[in-house]
Structure formats: structure tokens, C-alpha cells
Amino acid sequence: MPQFPLLFARRAALAALVFLVWAGPASASDSGPVIEQIRAQGHIVIGHRESSVPFSYLGPDKRPIGYAVDVCRRLAAAVQARLALPALPIEYLQLTPANRIEMIETGRAQLECGSTTNNAERREKVAFTIPHFITGARMLVKVNSGIDRIDQPEVKRVAVTRNTTPLAAVRRIQAERGLRFEIVETEDHEKAVQMVERGEAQAFVMDDVLLYGLASTRSDPKALKVVGRFITTEPLAIMLPKGDPAFKKIIDDEMRRLIFSREIHAIYQRWFEQPIPPNGQPLNLPISYLLRDFWKYPTDQVP
To answer: With contact defined as beta carbons under 8 Å apart, do 229 and 138 qualify?
Structure first.
């Protein structure tokens, strides 16, 4: 019988133990601009989104909830423990796709807990930790529209959220294929969904997991459907400021601990396989083989 599963299990257990040992008391090396900012202000600021279901959105009580928000709360607890702080309150700052990078780059928030793609262009301005999800962009359309391809002549207007990777992909596809649809940029996902519902756009292009989540929150979830081939591949990760290796190490170490201990699996199941607010509808999206394979050797370096 092959020994690879057993060997991998032993390696994973050893790695988890190593990370637990590393997460010891604060030392002189635990300093840097982000860490000193947190110490000085006495709290950590987590940036969240309004409608990135199920990653980061406002619950029925208007407080931020979601998969990425829960992960960020674990990261904040790790920062408190590593810096030996008696307490580290969390302050939440609502961000948009248009301003999220600027808010992290300028230090308004120390963590961005949403659905942001880790790519080379963004890494010029900000840092990322290990991806917590891998997805791809597809289309949200009306269930009776007959649309399942972006190049169909029925597609006259395509809504895409501003300052997102799917927007660049749609522009590229339009130019390469000579397609004549109009691209409408929206400030957030909610406005794009509303455009499809009202017939102001025939399709909304965004990460498919977000589209499933957004559709589940509508008054009639069955009126919309996700269609089409993947336009992009998107490794989603928590964003943090550049220039503080000590802070990034705390975050990366905790992400690896969550993965190797499988704690992140329970968080994932809570948001993707069980009923979630506001309508109590489950997304029924088990962990993909892409994410499972990526988590075997977790790294923040992605293509």
C-alpha cells in the first residue's frame, strides 16, 4: 500500500507543531511600521466589504460577517498573542472595490478581509497572505434569458464592478473578439446585480462564488443563474500593507496553522456548505480540488 498519504500526514502534523512553537512570546524582532501602528492605536483595523457574499458582507444587524471576516478574526487574535497584548479590539472599516487597495496601502486598515485576487500587479502596492479561496469569473444572468456565452448577440450590456480583475478580462475579451457589447462599470456588486434584475444589463461578470452568494440573497434566488466558461482564475487572499516583514510573518504563520490544523476547513464549511444569512440558503460549494491541492504546500506566491 502506498505510503504517501501517511508521509504527508506526518509532514503536515510536524509543520503544524513547528508553527505552534514559533507563535511564542513577542521578541525584539516583532517590530515594524504596521506593528508599531497597531501598538500605538491600541486596536487593529479590519477592512470589510458590503456585499461580497459569503466572504465579507453586512449581516441582518448591519455588522460585517463572512468567511474572510472569520479568518481575519483568527489573524487578529494571532497578532494579539504574538505581541503579548492584553487586548486587541477590532475596528471595522467598510471598503469598496475601488478604494480597498488605497486603504491598505495608506495604512487606513491593517487587513482587508474580502474577496481580493492576489496578483503580480497588486503586489507592487500591497502584500498578500496565503489564498483562502480559488475561483474564476463567470456570468450572472436571468434564468430565462437564454444566455450562456459572453459572445452571444443578445448580450448588449455587461456589468462589471470597477477596479476588479474580471473587468480587465472582459475588456481583453471584447477587444480580442471584436465584440460590440457595452461595458458598464459599477461601484459595487449589489448595483451590478440590480442592473441584471431590472434588464439594464444582460450579464454581470464576477467571480462565480460571489455570483452564487449574491443570487442566494435575492428575494427570488431562482430568478438568476450562473453560466458560461471561466474567464479568469482568481486566487483570493487577505490583503495587508507592504514593508513590515514581521507583521506579514505573523499573518502567514497563522494562515499556515489554520490550514495544517484544518481549522480553516470548519470555517469554510460554515460559509459554503451550511445555511447562511440573510435567507438561510446554503451555497453547497465543497472545497475544490484546486484549493485542496494548493493548501498541501501553502504559499503566498501565486502565478
So the answer is: yes
Give residue 174's domain range: 137-227
User: Over 285-298, what HEC string results?
Assistant: CCCCHHHHHHHHCC
CATH code for position 167: 3.40.190.10
Q: Is residue 143 domain-shared with residue 274, that is, in the same domain?
A: no
Grid cell of 25 as nine digits: 512570546
Note whether residue 17 is domain-resident.
yes
- C-alpha distances (whole Å) from 186 to each of 97, 129, 133, 190 are 10, 27, 24, 9
Q: How many domains does the chain have?
A: 2
Peptide bond before 286: cis, by omega within 30 degrees of 0?
no
Sorted by sequence, the CB contacts under 8 Å of residue 119 that are 6+ apart come out as 165, 302
Grid cell in block for residue 68: 474572510
* Distance (Å, whole) CA 35 – CA 248: 10
pLDDT in tens, 162-208: 999 999 999 999 999 999 999 999 999 999 999 999 999 999 999 99
Q: Is 255 found in the same domain as 129?
A: yes
Percentage helix, strand, coil for the chain under 3-state DSSP, each rounded to 5: 40, 20, 40
51-105 pLDDT per residue, tens: 999 999 999 999 999 999 999 999 999 999 999 999 999 999 999 999 999 999 9
| Claim to verify: residue 19 and residue 130 sit in the same structural domain | yes
Q: Look at residues 196, 227, 258 and tell me which one is the last residue of a structural domain.
A: 227
How far apart CA 258 and CA 272 sit, in angstroms, is 17
